[in-house]
Amino acid sequence: MATNLNTADSGSNYLLIHNARFLTTLSSEVFDTIAGGVDADVITIQAAEELSAFYETARLTDQGYLAGISRPYYDGIEPRIETAEHPHHLLIHRRLLAQAPSLAQMSDMETWLQHAGQAGAKCLHFSAAGTVWDLDSEEGLLTLLSDEAFEECVVPQRHDLPESIRTAGTILLGQHVHVDPDVILTGPVILCDGVTIHAGAIVKNAVIGPGVKIASGTVIRNRVVWTQQDCASQSGLSSVSSYPFKAAECVQSFRRWPVLSYAGGLKRIADILFSLVVLILSTPIFLIVAAVIKLTSPGPVFYPARRQGQYGVEFNCLKFRTMIVQADALQERLRVVNQVDGPQFKIEDDPRITGIGKFLRDTCIDEIPQFINVLLGQMSVVGPRPSPERENRTCPAWRDARLSVRPGITGLWQINRTRKIGMDFQEWVYYDMEYVRNLNLWMDVRICVRTVLHLLHQFLKQFG
Predict the structure, then answer these.
(1) Is residue 364 part of a domain?
(2) What is the average per-residue pLDDT within 77-84?
(3) pLDDT tens across 187-230, in order?
(4) Apex 453 CA angle, 261 and 456, nearest 5
(5) Are 309 and 421 within one domain?
(6) Does residue 6 register a pLDDT over 90?
(7) Domain check: are 13 and 70 in the same one?
(8) Cα separation of 42 and 66, whole Å?
(9) pLDDT tens across 355-387, in order?
(10) CA-CA distances (angstroms) from residue 168 to 42, 76, 178, 184?
(11) Does 147 share its domain with 291?
(12) How confident is the model at residue 152, as a pLDDT?
């Protein structure tokens, strides 16, 4: 196991130490985020690919049945339990080195952590989204060779090689390397000191260790041949296609519009003007509803639901509170009687709804505070229904489409849904996609007109 450590500064308070055995994709921003959010003497960080954006994980029940698919859309950082394995990265607060200067003389990671604990250091442990390669393994070394940074190495031209050999790509040569004529070297290739390659051999994407002799006609492909005995081994990667897939290669495919178009700018101006008018005119309603809610049930006047807005930015979607406190906790217990498909939840005569809450919901008065969200730029008057992250994970293409625009108080799905059993979620996806695909001024006007007519009908129905 490699124990050599490379050190580098990370801000003014911490020293960043890398475990030389491992190569990770963690950036300086990750280290700054973790170090800036906690107060600790020692922070260990492991790269964890399963925390990367777009990394899909199958979740199974205790019986081995598929329970669902987890697919995060953003890189994550989470605490982890301390383990015996060596961390990929170590952040050490400078005050610890001042208190225990002997720690600066230790190069063995395990011994260092033991002495830090004995010195009373506060240690925290984290996992962060990233890919890791073990450079003690054949796969790790070959992956390093496949990296773009290696391909861009500037290699001095060697003039002592036979002109008859054919080379392509990056070739790194040590001292006293002998290559016979008619050899093919296809980079990336590293030939260490004292390597001999006899005529007719082919070496592609490989590392050849010190003093190794490659016999005539031998083909070395996707291999680390560190000793002479490795030449006879059949191990190695079958193809370069084993190069790990990077989450960074996925991109958010949000739709975007020109700034001077209706969707790109004019719609926002209309939202500001419309929301200002509604909020001014509805001030008496705010006061009356707030008083009734406080008098009829314990708890706050407003219910802030965490929702995802345009481009996935989260915000608190405001509503007048229509349910009892702790309603969210009760929802999971009631999910067995859920009457709609997809990620939604709805049941008739929901026991969590308060007396005034049913009237507010039936007349949509509970949604008037959302015009505050519109004024703040978190929502639009017209758009897809605002949803939490767990609902948006259901269908990636649907998510990218609906998060291309601000969520709306009303929308195409809301005015067209049929509420047929087993069809509601499919209609939700269909109408959201249609709205984003065909967004224009006249569509928004038609949706607003139909919404007003529906609200009048619902309000009159309460007294009919």
Answers:
(1) yes
(2) 82
(3) 788 888 999 999 889 998 888 989 999 988 888 888 888 888 87
(4) 130
(5) yes
(6) no
(7) yes
(8) 39
(9) 898 899 888 999 999 999 999 999 999 999 999
(10) 46, 39, 18, 8
(11) no
(12) 57
DSSP assignment letter at 22: E
Instruction: Answer yes or no: is pLDDT of 159 > 60.
Output: no
Q: In this predicted model, what pLDDT tens digit does every residue of 396-418 receive, in sequence order?
A: 888 889 999 999 999 999 999 88
Secondary structure (DSSP) of 74-133: S--EEE----SSPPSEEEEEHHHHHH-GGGGG---HHHHHHHHHHTT--EEEEEEE--EE
Distance between CA atoms of residues 447 and 459, nearest Å: 18
337/310 same-domain check: yes
Q: What pLDDT is stored for residue 138 in this prediction? A: 81
The span from the CA of 195 to the CA of 199, in Å, is 13
Instruction: Find all residues with CB under 8 Å of 256, minimum gap 6, and list them.
Output: 264, 404
Same domain, 319 and 200: no
Euclidean distance between CA atoms 104 and 159, whole angstroms? 45
DSSP secondary-structure letter at 449? H
CA distance 436 to 413: 12
H/E run at residue 58: strand 57-60
Query: Contact at 8 Å (CB) between 46 and 129?
Result: no
Query: Could you give the CA distance from residue 75 to residue 77 in angstroms, rounded to a whole number?
Result: 7
Could you tell me if 203 and 280 lie in one domain?
A: no
* CA dihedral (78, 79, 84, 89) positive or negative: positive
**Cα–Cα distance for residue pair 313/403, rounded to 1 Å:** 9
Q: Kindly state whether residue 74 falls inside one of the protein's structural domains.
A: yes
How distant is the alpha carbon of residue 156 from its chain centre? 41
State the pairing for strand pair 89-93/14-19: antiparallel
Mean pLDDT in the chain?
82
**Together in a domain, 84 and 163:** no
Distance CA 135, CA 336 (A): 50
383: left (phi over 0), alpha (psi -120 to 50) or beta: left
pLDDT band (50, 70, 90) for residue 301: very high
Domain count, the chain: 3
Q: How far apart are the first and last CA of the chain?
A: 80
Q: What sign does the CA torsion over 250, 256, 259, 264 have?
A: negative
Q: Which of 76, 111, 133 is the last residue of a domain?
A: 133
How far is the C-alpha of 370 from the C-alpha of 360, rounded, in Å?
A: 14
Residue 176 inside a domain? The answer is: yes
133 against 375, higher pLDDT = 375
What single string gives the DSSP state of each residue in 260-309? Answer: TSIIIIIHHHHHHHHHHHHHHHTHHHHHHHHHHHHHHSSS-SEEEEEEE-
